[in-house]
From TrEMBL:
Residues 188-293 form the RNA 3'-terminal phosphate cyclase insert domain. Keywords: Nucleus, Ribosome biogenesis. NCBIfam families: 18S_RNA_Rcl1p. PANTHER family: RNA 3' TERMINAL PHOSPHATE CYCLASE, RNA 3'-TERMINAL PHOSPHATE CYCLASE-LIKE PROTEIN. Pfam families: RTC, RTC_insert. This is EOG090X05X4. GO terms for biological process: ribosome biogenesis; RNA processing.
């Protein structure tokens, strides 16, 4: 790493306001740059962070190791210094003010870069009117993440329980494998729509709600394509959550594997709004899906920022993707990418062929960038035992007596090694040779002569074992 790169990572960025709160914290974690966010709702009657924002900070603290988060007394200022992406088995109770997708969506690009595989359990609201539902994450966001992983084994999103607002009660399990580096993406042809799939769910309500929504949605979609199939998901008991609700999610799939999704959800129970009608929700979801198809592109509007972030984190190779009109959220995301990573995207209009003249839809944008080569580094540890056990990883070492366990500091690494009392040399390290300074006495007038001393790997640690660090 050059000195300019080191100065760029250590410089603190400063923002004002509560908008794009998750973007700033996630990009700070990936770029290892501290960030300060001030004047958070400072002019409102109830200033400071909301409950769902504080819950997201706690979740980010669980997935990292060594992060430093400071919040002032009024909650109007947050200072965040990111630590190492650790991962592991994490359980988190999300705030019912926002959906589980509010917490899961920013963790999708963090999962592949964790130190150990991520196994995340989130509890709360699975479907609401503010955030994309967990069904859209499963149908649209997960296929995008699979395109950047060389092998998608271990990438799972399972909905154990559904939960509607205001009480929630849903449960979602997300597991993500580790990847040293993402792959470059060339995704410029979305293809034609070949089928439409969906799911209609009802929680603690009559099962006829699902059929009414399906009939209304099919009444619109069958005018354009005959292959329309929508599943029903009527749950009762603990799997239905704590509040009644219903909704429908629709996904259009193209011949090239592009997924475009839209949804409609009923009003929460006890809300001052008029109770939702099932037929209206089915029609709204179908019209929203047609709007996404009209906008076009290789991803829908809710996942534009995800594909751009994964492209920027990829190898130092050219990646391209074709998008529809950029949403305001994506436009601000591009500004943040320049601040944190220095990555600038080249935007140009789509070059149409003769066949494309017959197609209708909005103008498409071809996004091109060169990745920042974000990767998980793996180094082979070198061990040497003398009067004190020393286990060195890069520039960090932990020294303990022969009788104690070798427990590293929290900022070094996460594993605990128990060295044998009488180790047997069975393999030498050629890459790195520690030096023995000879005598440790302070009375020696002659300077100690450094003599190379062979380090070894004991039988319980093979040279092929690698420990991932950042």
């Amino acid at each position: 790493m050059s000195r300019s790169d080191s100065n760029q990572q250590s410089s603190r960025l400063r923002y004002e306001g509560c908008n794009f709160f998750r973007q700033r914290l996630v990009l700070a974690t990936l770029s290892c740059r501290p960030v300060s966010i001030v004047n958070i709702r400072s002019k409102e009657n109830d200033p400071g962070l909301r409950e769902f924002e504080a819950s997201f900070i706690r979740l980010l603290d669980k997935i990292t190791n060594g992060s430093k988060i400071e919040v002032n007394e009024t909650g109007t200022a947050v200072h965040y210094e990111p630590g190492l992406l650790y991962g592991g088995t994490i359980e988190h109770d999300c705030s019912t003010q926002r959906s589980i997708s509010y917490y899961l969506e920013p963790l999708l690009p963090l999962g592949p870069f964790c130190k150990i595989p991520l196994h995340l359990t989130l509890r709360g609201v699975t479907n609401d009117q503010t955030d994309p539902s967990i069904d859209i994450i499963r149908c649209s966001s997960m296929p995008i993440l699979k395109r950047f992983l060389l092998v998608d084994d271990g990438l799972v999103l399972k909905i154990n329980k559904r939960g509607a607002p205001p009480k929630g009660g849903g449960e979602v399990i997300f597991t993500c494998p580790l990847r040293k580096q993402l792959r470059a993406l060339q995704y410029v042809d979305p293809g034609k729509i070949k089928k439409i799939r969906g799911v209609s769910y009802a929680l603690r309500t009559s099962p006829t709600m699902t059929n009414r929504m399906i009939e209304a949605a099919k009444g619109i979609l069958l005018k354009y394509i005959p292959d329309v199939f929508i599943l029903t998901d009527h749950r009762k008991g603990p799997a239905s959550g704590l509040s009644p609700g219903f909704g429908i999610t629709l996904t259009a799939e193209t011949i090239n594997g592009t997924f475009l999704s839209a949804e409609a959800t009923s009003n929460p129970q006890g809300d001052k709004q008029v109770p939702s009608v099932a037929e209206e929700l089915g029609e709204i979801a179908a019209l929203r899906l047609l709007e996404e198809i009209y906008r076009g592109g290789c991803v829908d509007s809710s996942n534009q920022h995800l594909v751009l972030l994964l492209m920027a984190l990829g190898p130092k190779d050219v990646s391209r993707v074709l998008l529809g009109p950029l949403s305001p959220y994506t436009i601000q995301f591009l500004r943040h990418m320049k601040d944190f990573f220095g990555t600038v995207f080249k935007m140009e209009n789509e070059i149409k062929n003769d066949e494309d003249e017959l197609r209708v839809g909005t103008e498409k944008i071809l996004m091109t960038c060169v990745g920042a080569a974000k990767e998980r580094r793996s180094i082979t540890p070198s061990l040497s035992f003398s009067q004190q056990h020393s286990l060195t990883f890069g520039s960090n070492s932990s020294y303990l007596s022969n009788d104690s366990l070798l427990k590293p500091r929290q900022s070094d690494f996460s594993r605990t090694f128990i060295p044998p009392p009488n180790p047997v040399i069975n393999r030498f390290v050629e890459e790195q040779e520690p030096y023995d300074t000879g005598s440790d006495s302070e009375n020696d007038s002659a300077p100690a002569k450094k003599t190379p001393k062979k380090s070894w790997f004991p039988s319980w640690l093979k040279k092929s074992d690698q420990i991932s660090v950042f």
